[in-house]
What we know:
By secondary structure, the protein is mainly α. 75% of the residues lie in helices and 0% in strands. α9 packs antiparallel against α11. The longest helix is centred in the middle third of the chain and has 49 residues.
Amino acid sequence: MLLSTTALFCAELWPRKSTEYVLAEDGDSDVASASRFGIRAPVEDANIFSQLTFSWMSPLLKLGQHKQISEDDLWEVPSDCAPANIAETFDANWQHEIDHSEKRSPSLIRALWKTVGAHYVLGGCFKLAQDILSFSKPVVLSMILGFVASHKTDKPQPMSFGYFYAGCMLALQITQSIALNQSLQLGYVTAIKIKSSLTTAIYKKAVWLSNETRQKYKTGEIFTMLTSDVDSVARLSDHAHIFWSGPLQIILGTYLLYNTLGWSALASIVVMVASMPVNRGLTARMQVLKKEQRMNKGKRIALVGEALSGAKIIKLYAWERPILSKIQYVRESLELASLSKFGRMFAWAS
């Protein structure tokens, strides 16, 4: 085990192919500075230690000290996050589901899992490590308090124990920070891949619709799918880990409280169980309001689309004010009203 770890460490420290990215020098003009940037993103050539600490972004951060960052100064998107590559991978996975439709019905979830499953599982591993480490710090803190309290007795603990506990606390904090940021980063990457896959698939489907089928779907409904619905599915990937992380945190937290407070710690469980019906009712109401807000948004988008498509007729008959008042009514009296109700309900739920 020690030999494999040492070999991995040496292999990761071995110099890799350098990117075309070069740091900006003092006195460089904006044009000269922009020309120093290569096409390939440094993260694709970064070793595991650089990826864990995000040190591959240091050149870009240093450049920000010399000039204002512009679009020309940014690298291209990494190849595994490029929309074209993501769409190609998802199309292949979805086509595989269609080709095997005789054995089983095509599943969008399976196609998405094959596309983003690796990043999602790896992010879950970092999330698990972060949860365990967050509950390990109180244990080490209790050891530190025991060490301090022992020096007020006749049998104090050796000073080496204090240094060891302090070192453990520092190592836990650093490792937890790395695990948390990596889980968030992988969650964002997963959300980007899901959004790119679904957006491309919906857009291709909308382009290929026949005239007869197109009459069944309004422009507002398609636009809502491309924006709100896709965003909701993408955001789900960021919070999906809470389904297993939440119970784990409750179990670990209750166990630590029980060891500290005894049976009185179960009072928190009673309060949590008693509040579950209330939270369930608030969540159900929030879902209804969210659906209502999306429907109102679709109505507004449909009205705007109709106004733009019939702009000549509206100008010819001077219908600008009636059309504008109708759009404002849907926007202010319906869409914003439902959004305000959702915000108040969210505040109560929080």
